[in-house]
Amino acid sequence: MYKKLTCTVFLLFFIFLSKNSYGFLVNEIVGSVDNIPITLNELYFFNNFNRINNLKYNKFNHRFSKSSLKKSLNVYINRLLILRQEKKFGAVKISERQIDAYIKGFEKKFKMLHKNMLFSVFLKTYGFNKIMFVDYVKNILLEKEFIHERLHFFLYSFEKSISTPSSTKKIQSRELLSRLKDWVNRLRRRANIEINDNY
User: Where are the domains of the chain?
Assistant: First the structure.
């Protein structure tokens, strides 16, 4: 009887540990890229991080719709693929000063929106600590700089391919966006992407 009770307590304990404030399992798999899993918890952090960055308030126990999560998942997958390309070439360098400035700006936005919550509590909600958050921010900056470099490359190749370099900026913008989308789609086709629709 005692052993049975002990087993039950341990089971309930681990179930409690494996859930967050939304009530879903934090390690629930929503997709994968080349067999590297993406969890529902990652998507919720990604969404809430972006909302804070865009100064959009929502409670952290807010449940995102399936359509919103699916859209976020595809954006998240694109980011992973772009970041993997950057790490493959290793051409971009990010300084500690850039990372510190980004984090200070983000924490300032966080305090504006969530005055009664400590930033460390926000991170802990998603299983993050400060070191992990620094790595997260570094990857964001690497991705942005790498995309910036790719756009420069696309612009250079585009200007070489046209006979009238005086074409409007509007045409250039459309062409650059189209080439960027094509590049990301090529990355997606080369990767083994799986999406779980049952979360």
Answer: 2-191
**Tokens standing for 87?**
């790490």
Scan for tokens 């200070």, then name that residue.
Answer: 104
- The pTM score is 0.78
User: Can you tell me the distance from the alpha carbon of 37 to that of 193, in angstroms, rounded to the nearest whole number?
Assistant: 10
Question: Domain 2-191: what homologous superfamily?
Answer: Porin chaperone SurA, peptide-binding domain (1.10.4030.10)
Nearest CA to 108 among 151, 55, 67? 55
The pLDDT of residue 177 is 81
DSSP state, 19? B
